[in-house]
Amino acid sequence: MREFKMEKQITDESRLYISEYIARARKAQAIFEDASQADADRAVRAVAKVVYDNAESLAALAVEDTRMGNVPDKIAKNRSKARLIWNSLKGKKSRGILERDEASGITTIAKPLGVVAAITPCTNPIVTPMSNSMFALKCANAIIITPHHNATLCSARAVELFRAELKKLGFPEDLVQILDRHSRENTKNLIAMADVVVATGGGGMVRAAYSSGKPALGVGAGNVQAIIDRGTDIEEAVRMIAAGRAFDNGIICSGEQSAICPEEAFEDVLRAFEACGCHVIKSAAEREALREALFEDGEMSRHAVGQSAAAVARLAKIEIDAHAKAIAVEAEGTGKSDVLAKEKMCPVIALYRYRDFAEAVAIAKANLEAEGKGHSVAIHSSDRAHIEYAGKALPVSRFLINQTCATGAGGSFQNGLAPTNTMGCGSWGNNSLSENLTYRHLMNVSRIACCMPDNPVPSDAEIWAEV
């Protein structure tokens, strides 16, 4: 009985705590609801620009707070994402009348969703709160962020900067808030009280978002397979793959996890990885030591997540160059037959060799079926038939062609994907979207339908004609 009373007290306190955040958000959003396009865009730009201007200090704080990743890559990520996302949003209509389609008689009008609850990860503790806030403000919403418990300080600092910029512009600071008490109970109540949930993070939080009773936009796990086709420049392909695997110590969900290459070019691939500053595992004993260091009972070891190649090597008691960018190791099986086929949230990449392109795709599919289904695949090829074969066969939402997937799957100036930090994985990953999250997903759209009396009405013969 005593335990029940304590649990009820905790729940009641949490609901009161969250209801105060919701009340502040609703008050701010009501003021901002009729914001002009220019005002919405000024708010969005301010959030991006303050991250760009404070990229170094925010990166350093993120590494100190989370103990994951590295400062130079986080600086680059803060700057590139701020530039990319603002550039993609400016000039886009998100307020008032979006379109008048004379042909269909439909007029579309943008309206806010209200209060957005955003669950953000420790792997992207600055740019994910930034992009979610930008998408919310673009559509005149308010947003409340609940950060990962290992990223509370750096995420809170970012939000503090956002709020200061909003205040300078004369907008309500409470358009962007962040919880200052972290608990599952608080997150549970936040996602139940908000109008829509954006969940970027672990599978448990994403499932909780989908079971909250509110519309939810969640993402799945990554396990990016990189296929090197015959006829491809091996050195260039490996350079991009190695860069993706090493970026921010391998914690990016879109980072390359396996490199699948032609069997006759395997030795060339190994030499290319070494030339890129990677350490190649060549003994069975070192491969097994690496497996044991990376995985505990089949699950990724928390001691290896987001650590440098040198730190991972120390865990495995393997000697490598202290400046090695990543570790490359040939896997001995696909899918569930070898844990090296799984997502490795550190700079370690599994290598595979194939006899023909169909086998390369089969290897990628087996690994994706075990983990990472729905996310992304990288293909290094100039053979359109092979690219489209893989495109039809593999269950992922994004195919990055001749690009570094780690930095391209979330949109870039060199591809047409929407710039974001939240990448949907479709039904394959138990997600509601199979594209990159952007402002359009945080917008209600009303449709005015005019009567079109002159529209042609087909006959029954035309309707039921054989196709």
What does this structure look like?
- Helix 3 (55-66) crosses helix 4 (71-89) and helix 4 (71-89) packs parallel to helix 5 (127-138).
- The chain is built from 16 helices and 17 strands.
- The protein has 467 residues and is of the alpha/beta class.
- It folds into two domains: 13-219 and 437-448, Aldehyde Dehydrogenase, Chain A, domain 1; 224-409, Aldehyde Dehydrogenase, Chain A, domain 2, CATH 3.40.309.
- The protein has helices spanning 2-32, 37-53, 55-66, 71-89, 127-138, 152-168, 184-193, 203-210, 234-246, 266-275, 284-294, 309-316, 357-370, 384-393, 405-408, 460-463; strands at residues 96-101, 106-112, 115-120, 142-147, 176-178, 196-199, 216-218, 224-228, 256-262, 279-280, 295-296, 299-300, 327-330, 348-354, 374-380, 396-401, 443-449.
- The model has no long low-confidence stretch (mean pLDDT 95).
- The protein is globular.
- Strands 10-13-14-9-8-15-16 form a seven-stranded parallel sheet, with helices on both faces. The protein has a five-stranded parallel sheet with strand order 5-4-3-6-7, sandwiched between helices. A three-stranded antiparallel sheet has the order 1-2-17, with no helix packed on it.
- The longest helix is centred in the first third of the chain and has 31 residues, at 2-32.
Please tag this protein with its features.
single chain; alpha/beta; 2 domains; seven-stranded parallel β-sheet; five-stranded parallel β-sheet
